[in-house]
Amino acid sequence: MPSRLSRRQLFSTLLLACPAPVPIQFQGTIGRFAADSKPAPLPEPKPASPNIVYILLDDTGFSDLHCFGSEVDTPNIDSLAAAGLLYNNFHTKAICSPTRAALLTGRNSHAVGMKELAGPDQGYPHSRGRVTPAAATVAQILSTNGYSTYGAGKWHLNPTADSKPSGDRTHWPLQKGFHRWYGFLSGWTDQYKPDLIEDNHAIPAPATPGYHFSVDITSQSLKMLSDHRTADAKKPFFLYLAYGATHAPVQVPKSYTDKYAKTFEKGWDKTREDRHKRQLALGVIPANTKLPPRNPGDPAWDGLPEQDRAVFSRFMAAYAGFLEHTDEQIGRVVKYLKDNNLFENTAIFLMSDNGGAPEAGNKGGFLRPYGDPTTIAQMHQRLDELGTPTTQPLYQRSWAAASCTPFKFYKLWPYAGGVQTPFICSWPAGIPQPGIRKQFVDVIDITPTVLDITGIPAPEVFAGVCQMPLQGKSIKSTFTNPAAPHPRDRQYYELWGSRGIWHNGWKAVGIHTPGGNFDADKWELYHTDVDFSESDNVAAKYPEKLEELKKLWWSEAKENGALPLLEAPMGRRPTYNQAL
């Protein structure tokens, strides 16, 4: 009996064996003149419903939204959760480009060529720094099935060299299925002076007094929808709204920062404790969830000098204001949908791409997010400028830990702090009862869900290229059934050599030391069904289970094209391992 083909072998077989698409046969007749000919127009794609909106936040941790336990006011997001579904077991890829690739394609990031941040080709199929044409995006699929497709905000899915105005546009948004685009192409940009792309060309940043990028992309999105309704109000639309917030630089009008000036004087340790208590009270986390101890290398708040505490609390105040400001923009989108009778049949998927950002280290960045030489004393002298156009800040690493409450660690790590983020789904016409959902859901499941609720099949061939099978699973059943089964029984993680795998309520995590032997990496084991926050490493108690999961990781990595293991580029190594 022939052996079962792995996914990787199946993808390769499809790409080699798939025949070229057959042109549609003309159904009319052609004579010498129109009088003796019969026209046959091409069939119009059958419009599908509902409208679809993806709202993607950046570097926003599990606990940052008010409905997930935060002190920050996010009433518009909260209202989506209150009337829709709040998922507390949603997972991403620990860093932005892989999450975005997985979200838009419904496949694991390694399989589509986006192992890590979009950038140069590293020479292997999983590290091309761009999404393979064998994985059509949701925008490409929907645009060929009667949808108008619009995008605004952050892209970060094309090679770095292609981000220049003169760069190759093959992997720009319009070539990936969007009819319109307004935003930036790289990993981050200044919120007051963004590097803007409109459709397929660069444009200067507006010089409007009081300009802010979050406001701008929201306004541009609403203009796209207004133009859409003028052109064909009956046609459904897909909107991908990927905010630069709350990624560095943390920039927001000073009044928003001032609102939270006193809120975070209690420090990051007390903030973690308070958020943990609120999460328990809200039922967002299981009643027995522990709060892990402070991460290695993160200082105790009470042990800091007074000046440090004054400076650091202002950073988190700016971050909170930045998030509230973003919530207001999301409220504008919801109001537009409601005012135009579109909200009822619009499925909104709101999520973050990874946990809170630790890259600025214990001191934080003031004039620039990363590697800023500004001293804390100098920051203190200019503290009122924090978040204004004269600064490009990123908060201290311990605030990232608070952002990820009740989990340990943060963005870049395969622990829950890096990969488990807030996720909310709103669709009044398709979700009869609001509530909390506890199923293990991965970001690769969102686009398959969209195809399920719109009735659009994933294409086997797209633009003449055979397509990889979708790896995500629809979560439509969870819309009506709180007890619906998990859409999957396993999921692997990998970034820069550190690894993780979840399987039926157990999770193994292997942390790689740069320059070390991968086989010597330390592995930990967590029983997440009873230990939501990954607080108790039970590797010594269940060594056979750990070995089982390690073996499964290698199997999943091979099937998903995640090999060979590659370390972080030299410039990123200290950032990733600074807490070890």
List keywords for this structure.
15 helices, Alkaline Phosphatase, subunit A, Arylsulfatase, C-terminal domain, 2 domains, alpha/beta, globular, 4-stranded antiparallel sheet
* CATH domain topology of the largest domain: Alkaline Phosphatase, subunit A
Q: Give, in spatial order, the strands making up the sheet with the most strands.
A: 7-6-5-4-8-1-9-10-2-11
Number of domains: 2
Indicate the radius of gyration in whole angstroms. Answer: 24 Å
CATH superfamily of the largest domain: Alkaline Phosphatase, subunit A
Number of extended strands: 18
| Biggest sheet overview | 10 strands, mixed
Class from secondary-structure proportions: alpha/beta
Give the class-level CATH name of the largest domain. Answer: Alpha Beta
Beta-strand percent range? 5-15%
The number of helical segments is 15
CATH architecture of the largest domain: 3-Layer(aba) Sandwich
Q: Name the helicity range.
A: 25-40%
Q: Mean pLDDT, as a whole number? A: 93
**Assembly state of the chains shown:** single chain
Cα separation of the termini: 49 Å
* Gross morphology: globular
Poorly predicted runs of 5 or more residues: 13-17, 573-580
Protein described:
The protein is an alpha/beta fold and 580 residues long. It has 2 domains: 51-488, Alkaline Phosphatase, subunit A; 489-580, Arylsulfatase, C-terminal domain (2-Layer Sandwich). Helix content is 28%, strand content 14%. The chain has 15 helices and 18 strands. The protein has a 10-stranded mixed β-sheet. It has a 4-stranded antiparallel β-sheet with strand order 15-16-17-18, with helices on one face. A two-stranded parallel sheet has the order 3-12.
